[in-house]
Amino acid sequence: MPGVIPNASHLQRLRPPDGIAFGHISHSARFIITSPRCLLADYYRPVRDASYQTSAISAEVASISATQPISETERREIREGLVATVVGLGVDDIASHRLFQLIEANPDALDSVIRLSLGEPARLDALRGTGLMEAGASAMLDGVASLAAEALNTPFAAVSLLDGDRQFLIGCNVAPPTSERWRPVGMSICMFTVASGIPFIVDDATMHPLLADHPAVISGEVGAYAGVPLFSDEDKAVGTLFSWDNRPRDWTSGQIIVLQDMADLASDKIFRRLI
């Protein structure tokens, strides 16, 4: 199942913009458009064509990086546009519009910046320090995901960890086969949550410009998504607690608050904090 950096070397935990409390995002503040023109078909194409093979995706990304360099100004604009688009309509529509201008000119620009964010050394060090990426499924985090799904009254919830190439579902309320807990990071919706460092709340994924062309949305696997980043003690986002439905749904402010509280619980368990 079912995500940039302030500069080229650091990922800091992003705070809500002035006047926005992520636990109280109103319906009108969600990024919903009436006639989506998704520009990310080429963004997701390598993942589909590679049949989920991480090595093929990495090779394609390396080729992209070598042939289509992105300036520091463009990186900053992409970062600002991603954060604005994740937060929602009405927060910074100019930045969101600029993001899609840049993607239209270079469909691989967003991928390049997200990969830099996910590959940031301090973030990966925090993830490796947990020892969980290779430890297999966690019954404890399966339990957290189950509690989240029950509290939100949603069919699915999971705890994800993301390194530079892969997403691992370390906790799920409905336990999938082991092979299905792993996906290339390019197939992850959680990458937008992790790379932006802020909650990503989507009522209708088919109408969201970042997700409308995502394979999981096109297939009907994901109709709505709500994810909250999980932070290390150094404020590095290493994964998410997220919930999803295969149909659109209106996430309430109360549900978002509950999801944030459950994400704090998941982070405490991942980083072995006293509760």
Automatic annotation (TrEMBL):
Taxonomic superkingdom: Bacteria
InterPro entries the UniProt entry points to: GAF, GAF-like_dom_sf
Every GAF domain range: 138-268
Pfam family, one: GAF_2
Gene3D superfamilies named among the record's database cross-references: 3.30.450.40
Name of this protein: GAF domain-containing protein
